[in-house]
Amino acid sequence: MPLPPQDAKSPLKAETERATPRPGPDFDQIRAARERIAPHIHRTPVVTSASLDALAEARLYFKCENLQRSGSFKMRGAANAVFSLSEQEATRGVVTHSSGNHAAALALAARRRGIRAWIVMPSDAPHIKRRAVEAFGGEIVFCEPTLAAREAAAAELVRTTGAVLVHPYDDDRVIAGQATAAIELIEDIPDLDFVLAPISGGGLLSGTALAARHLLPAACVVGCEPRNADDAARSLAAGRIEPAATSRTMADGLRAALAPRTFAILRCTVDRVALVSEEEIVSAMRLLWDRLKMIVEPSGAVSAAPALFRQIDVKGGAEGKKIGIILSGGNLDLDSLPFGSTR
């Protein structure tokens, strides 16, 4: 169903918020990040499908970060953080906590710079993401599957090793790197009406929104979130950071809570939040495979679902409008596909 219009007093639309200087990296920092990471990432393609356009009654443009190095957009932010380090900082190595994609990306970025990377992962992290971290040379430290446990373990590693913490999203260097995906998308399709990206801790959506506001200020920026992990939607509606949802979602990469930094950015740059069900995530994954021949993990399919199932029918309808969609990752365990029987 269409998203309801935001209340005029909503923090997402408040003119006072838009009139004040925006938090987060400025566009000069984003531009510098793009130059810095260019040798270390792929410029991923933007693909289309006439049949998906017909289904959505709009023109869809999919930015395929599932084809990025390390399998997700996270390589952009990780590479910018790692290659922003001074020589003295780099000799100490880096530390992060992550359920998977940022972990793999930071391990790969560190390997490319020739430094150590310690990765705190929850004990229930998907095996495919554990294997990726190990393959890229990351040194894994497991912890209980809670944010508090992850943060405590990372802090202890920083204390004992002296390594530099690279937070998965609460870091301007990471946000600036993530923004480069939207820059490429807008360069390829310069007249988009909507830009969609998933929300977890908010790093990708923050970067996407900052880039879109600078390059395409008339576009509607839509954050996409599982209904079972709707803390960002609740936070933006309430005007304060709400606790993470307790429900389970197959989109394991979207279970993090917003940080004050990303919350502040999203409040003044994002127009809408779309919530999608677990069934819609599965259907979107299958459509992307059937029509685009793209393997997209659940977290990546979350950003496609609102367009595919016509949830962004705002202010007169999206029919014929151009919608840019960031498919954030493709690290999917093929032994655990949620499609059911194929017979």
Estimate the global geometry from the Cα principal axes. Answer: globular
Largest sheet: 6 strands, mixed
Distance between the termini: 31 Å
Quaternary organisation: single chain
- Specify the structural class: alpha/beta
Written as H for each helix and E for each strand, in order along the chain, the element string is HHEHEHHEHEHEHEHEHEHHEHHHE
- Major sheet: arrangement of strands: 1-2-10-7-8-9
Helix percentage? 40-55%
Q: Per DSSP, what share of the residues sits in E-state strands of 2 or more residues?
A: 5-15%
Radius of gyration: 19 Å
What is the structure about, briefly put?
The chain is α/β, with parallel strands linked by helices. The protein contains 15 helices and ten strands.
Could you name the key traits of this structure?
343 residues, alpha/beta, six-stranded mixed beta sheet, four-stranded parallel beta sheet, 15 helices, globular, disordered N terminus
